[in-house]
């Protein structure tokens, strides 16, 4: 988890980093969200932490650079809206999921081999705790 985030996912966007293992373990399956058909079959994820089970409705997924704005921690509502608008333009699947001002997001980030220092991110809205 990003050092700037609270462990209880109470931030607007909690960023979780994981390895893209070539054997298919850990976050390797995130890359599959480059395909609309894969998203259609797997539109939600579950995140388990000690004492909590979170359901995430997936909002967007795209290839990002290490300095992509999804890694910023927004301070203002305007900053948050810019990030959401950008993610909506960049996403490689259409989810139809909307995000309201009170919603919390989780961004899962892993290595991508599209170009040097590329990452693939999948953004989900927390809908159950």
What does this structure look like?
The structure is a single chain. The protein has a five-stranded mixed beta sheet with strand order 1-4-5-3-2. The two termini are 18 Å apart. The protein has 129 residues and is an alpha+beta fold. It has a single domain (13-128), classed as Beta Barrel (Sortase, Chain: A), CATH 2.40.260. Helices cover 16% and strands 32% of the residues. The longest helix is centred in the middle third of the chain and has 14 residues, at 77-90. The chain is built from two helices and five strands. The radius of gyration is 14 Å and the shape is globular.
Q: Mind sketching the topology for me?
A:
Blueprint: E1 13-17, H1 36-41, E2 44-49, E3 52-64, H2 77-90, E4 105-111, E5 119-128
Parallel strand pairs: 1-4
Antiparallel strand pairs: 2-3, 3-5, 4-5
Please give a quick description of this structure.
The protein is α+β, with helices and mostly antiparallel strands and 129 residues long.
What is the spatial order of strands in the main beta sheet?
Answer: 1-4-5-3-2
CATH class: Mainly Beta
CATH architecture: Beta Barrel
Number of strands: 5
**Segments where pLDDT lies below 50 for 5+ residues?**
none
- What is the third-level CATH name, the topology? Sortase, Chain: A
Succession of helices and strands: EHEEHEE
- If helices are DSSP runs of H or I spanning 4 or more residues, what is the number of helices? 2
Number of domains: 1
In round numbers, the mean pLDDT is: 90
Radius of gyration: 14 Å
The CATH superfamily is Sortase
Strand count, sense and closure of the main sheet? 5 strands, mixed
Given the helix and strand composition, which structural class is it?
Answer: alpha+beta
Instruction: Report the helical percentage.
Output: 10-25%
